[in-house]
Amino acid sequence: MCLITPADLLSTFRITPDGATHPRMVPPTKIERFDTRYNRDRRASKPVYHLEIAMHANSFWVGALAWASLFAVATGNASADDQSADQTQLQHSDLSQYRAADGKLKPIQSVADWMFRRQQIIAGAELAMGPLPQTEALPAFDTRITEDVWIGKVRRMTMTMAVDDSDRLPFDLYLPSSVAQFVNVNALTNVISSPKLPAVVALHPTGAAGKRIVAGQGGRPGRQYGIELAQRGYVVIAPDYPSFGEYADYDFKRDNYASGTMKAIANHRRCVDYLAELPIVDSERIGAIGHSLGGHNAIFLGVFDQRVKVMVSSCGWCPFHDYYGGQIEGWASERYMPRLRDEFQLAPDKVPFDFYELVAAMAPRTFVSVSPTHDANFDIRGVRKAIPVAAQIYSLFDAPEELILLTPDCEHDFTKNMRMESYSIIDRVLQHTPIEPEPATN
């Protein structure tokens, strides 16, 4: 049984940074649709998309109730009678319940109920990943440009920025043709676009080339989604993942993070911070996309940063029990989450979170899972088990169509058809009319 300490709780409970929602339209057709709806007469009459926990006078009791509920989850703070009456643990694959302040399991009947469970999911994830760093004292970006090149009509600026007091993140910034020629290399933050442009965080798969893989380098086709989205008219930021690209010499043992996963989440949130500060970017229209390593990082970013309105994960996930038959050693390296080995004995039943929960935690924002039927890494059978579970929460938000599963007949790949379909969904969610894209090759 995994217990959440008060310290873990204090590090995880936070007001969601953004309450905006996007218009819903009918998505493209070639999808597997899941619409498992809650009984409507048991639902809130008007969904509340974000649970406000404001601790000022007129909402003190709301805040106190929320804190009491989460504190009970963290400490097992229930009476002996309550504990003897209800010893049932929350199951990662069952999103119909949450643990209330009295320690008892209660049915999720409203969005407010779900928000308590969501905070419990975040707390569980942080037990495995380590706490999300606080952002109040982050340094200035202090961006430094090391290269400025043109790729066709797109401009790519290679840069570094400060992500904390001791580390600089290498990344590429792609500027679409609509603004590329107007940017002064020394005054990027002074350029204003009217109207402002949408932006995407493009997260690369495993490979020594790091961030350049999303530009088509690295020797494998189908990974060039960074440059393709820039050609389509998006501002794109593509960071290196620690241990790849210009980050190849990153030393996980000497940083202040419990996992490479949490370090990456902090870096990728910093990328969103940077995009939101650019005058050319509409901070309400930011998405994330990735393949494989980048695929699950798009999920992690979407869970921990609600400013991201659409997440595309290609070949990026399945429940832990379905990952190589439950052999989760691959998730426990220093690049990922060493605590899965050191504290949870590589046992999926002991891991304090799972992807059923993470996918649901992105609701009601749009999530596109590109899950090939022959992916040897992330078993489609596990994805097909998890999507209907998460669909219950999307339906709770009246947003079942925003959970999209694409199942191409291929192996561990992000094919041209799937990329184009994913881009169309991003266009729809971020309300973008694409520039005539330069032709994709494969």
UniProtKB/TrEMBL annotation:
The 4-O-methyl-glucuronoyl methylesterase-like domain extends over: 252-395
The record's annotation in InterPro entries points to:
AB_hydrolase_fold, FrsA_esterase, GCE-like_dom
Q: In its keyword annotation, does this UniProt entry include Signal?
A: yes
UniProt keyword terms in alphabetical order: Hydrolase, Serine esterase, Signal
Q: Which residues constitute the signal peptide according to the record?
A: none
* Pfam families per the UniProt record, alphabetical: GCE_fung (PF22244)
Q: Which domain of life is it from?
A: Bacteria
> Could you tell me what this protein is called?
4-O-methyl-glucuronoyl methylesterase-like domain-containing protein
Q: Native species of this protein?
A: Rhodopirellula islandica
